[in-house]
Design brief:
The chain is mainly α. It contains 20 helices and 6 strands. Strand 1 and strand 2 (143-149) form a beta hairpin.
């Protein structure tokens, strides 16, 4: 498990102690429901509550004998009880308890992840607003394209984080489902009203129908939402790594006092924290496959989902929690090198304004094909001869015969490319 990267709240949710505590909460809720409907004697639940005790070590000791964790848990909880112990786990099966408890833990994890996403969204929004008008070059295929702003780049990330948050909220609803329906889900030895009582008590929805388990498309949806969010983290961690390349150096991951970048090269400042995000995203994304495969179950249930779920659900939650909180810190102390952004923007000798020139020529009556050839011909002089794009155009009679000097000057106005930034921010509610 990815315990090294986990943070205290999430680690607590996925601890063995919490797992058994949630199992006990469900078992007690079942007893309470049975007592409420007169199925077991009054007063039994209070006796069970006062007598229920366990240690992880004792459960593990019993599991080495029983080779069944839920039976070991029930034995450990009831071994010091009196006659009331016979009503613990009455009329239910293992996964009535385990799936219902798992739903609570996934819900609590989703709540933490939603909180993480909202915190990161706020940090990215702040960076977007601060650099709303900070010009830089936009790149496609890794090559200079047209001007953008750094705030715009952050706004794109912010928009994805909003979708990630909505996906996580939807997934939270999907997995917030319990079941107390018995060994094959047909309520052979437990009344449906027991399920409804227990789920209401635990603030869960009840599955309209289940087998021995809650169907695993719900869990797959949850892990898919986590994986998509992790991939979004990877996307922007990769972008920050690329922007920190020595030849670009438009941003830099904060280099903290006493930090070392390399054991061999004292000059190194590496974006290793962003690289960690990328590496963990690969792990989280790999868990989608077993989650999807767990949707398939033989008849009313087989055991193939159980082993891998013990790893993939906890690890996914732990990893994304770490990734989101780490990115929030990284965004808050990211070094933005605006001077280098301007240098890079001007690096290609104004080629980035080629589309504006193309459209100006078309507006003056040229066909798009002819205008494209004129712009490409003059752009080649910039690529191959080091001539500025504007200078090349000013010396081309096919251009000067169509565009007046002030019209050509307007084609190289940076503000033209950035004039709709406000509209974009307004759409996102970032103004």
């Amino acid at each position: 498990m990815i315990d090294r990267y986990s943070l205290p709240k999430m680690r607590s949710i996925w601890s063995e102690e919490t797992k058994f505590r949630k199992w006990l909460d469900v078992e007690i809720a079942v007893c309470e429901a049975h007592e409420h409907y007169g199925i077991i004697p009054k007063g039994v639940t209070d006796k069970i509550k006062s007598g229920a005790a366990f240690t992880v070590e004792r459960i593990e000791e019993m599991e080495r004998e029983t080779h069944h964790d839920l039976i070991a848990f029930v034995k450990a909880v009831t071994e010091n009880m009196g006659d009331e112990g016979r009503y613990v786990h009455y009329g239910v099966t293992s996964y009535d308890i385990e799936d219902t408890a798992m739903a609570i833990r996934m819900r609590e994890s989703a709540d933490l992840l939603i909180e993480d996403l909202e915190s990161l969204s706020c940090a990215v929004a702040e960076l977007a607003r601060r650099h709303k008008y900070t010009p830089m070059i936009g790149r496609t295929h890794g090559v200079h394209a047209e001007p953008i702003t750094f705030g715009f780049k952050m706004a794109v990330w912010y928009s994805q984080l909003r979708r990630d948050t909505e996906r996580m909220k939807s997934a939270r609803r999907a997995i917030n489902v319990g079941k107390i329906s018995g060994a094959v889900g047909i309520f052979g030895n437990v009344d449906p009203k027991i399920e409804e009582y227990v789920c209401k008590k635990l603030d869960l929805d009840f599955a309209p129908v289940s087998t021995q388990i809650v169907q695993r498309d719900r869990h797959a949806e949850f892990l898919s939402a986590i994986a998509v969010a992790a991939s979004g983290c990877e996307n922007y961690a990769t972008e920050m790594r690329n922007l920190q390349r020595t030849e670009i150096l438009e941003v830099q991951e904060a280099f903290l006092p006493g930090q070392r970048g390399s054991s061999a090269m004292p000059h190194k400042r590496n974006p290793w924290r962003f690289e960690t995000i990328v590496g963990l995203a690969r792990v989280v994304r790999s868990y989608i496959v077993p989650a999807l495969e767990n949707i398939t179950s033989w008849h009313e249930r087989d055991n193939t989902n159980s082993s891998c779920e013990r790893i993939i659900i906890a690890d996914s939650c732990l990893a994304l929690d770490f990734m989101l909180q780490s990115l929030t810190k990284l965004v808050g102390r990211l070094e933005i090198k605006t001077d280098n952004m301007l240098v890079n923007l001007e690096k290609m000798g104004q080629l980035v304004f080629s589309e504006h020139v193309l459209l100006a020529l078309v507006r003056r009556g040229l066909s798009r094909e002819d205008a494209y050839k004129i712009c490409q011909r003059n752009a080649a002089k910039c690529w191959d001869e080091g001539v500025s794009f504007k200078e090349a155009l000013e010396n081309d009679p096919d251009v000067t015969s169509v565009l007046k000097p002030d019209e050509l000057d307007e084609c190289f106005n940076l503000e033209h490319h950035l004039r709709n930034v406000d509209a974009i921010f307004e759409r996102l509610g970032l103004n």
